[in-house]
User: Which sequence fits this backbone?
């Protein structure tokens, strides 16, 4: 945090023309405070943004290839939780969430939502009648084992 102070002993330096001048026994302090935001931006916000960009890799993978999609999302989710734990040691302990903590929680929530959507799409892929392997219905989790039929005999 960068703090600059200007002290005026009698206030004549800061009085505007036409306004009432402060009395000589009064003190005037002008305090200018500016925040150094670059460390918060580079150390807290950019890693979460990069994790969210990396989570888009899931959409390059085949939709019914649930194992690979879930592995990517689970890895990124664990990285986000670890990063949140690390950041909680650096941020002050307050009875409320700061804007940085809300941002970290939102990124973790998006990864969790993405994982749930992968599970739902995987269920549809497994239960689809046209998918080889497990025909059935998506509202009942009753799976039938797919058996290859040997037409050569």
Assistant:
């Amino acid at each position: 945090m960068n703090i600059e102070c200007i002290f005026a002993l009698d206030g004549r330096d800061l009085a505007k023309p036409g306004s009432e001048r402060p009395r000589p026994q009064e003190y005037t302090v002008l305090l200018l405070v500016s925040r150094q935001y670059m460390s918060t931006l580079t150390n807290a916000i950019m890693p979460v943004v990069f994790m969210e960009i990396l989570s888009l890799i899931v959409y390059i993978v085949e939709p019914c290839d649930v194992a690979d999609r879930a592995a990517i999302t689970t890895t990124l989710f664990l990285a986000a939780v670890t990063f949140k734990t690390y950041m909680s040691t650096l941020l002050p302990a307050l009875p409320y969430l700061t804007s940085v903590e809300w941002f970290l929680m939102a990124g973790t929530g998006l990864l969790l939502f993405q994982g749930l959507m992968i599970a739902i799409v995987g269920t549809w892929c497994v239960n689809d009648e046209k998918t080889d392997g497990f025909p059935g219905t998506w509202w009942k989790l009753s799976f039938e084992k797919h058996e290859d039929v040997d037409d050569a005999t």
Summary: The chain has three helices and two strands. Residues 76 and 82 are 10 Å apart (CA to CA). Confidence is low (pLDDT under 50) at residues 133-138.
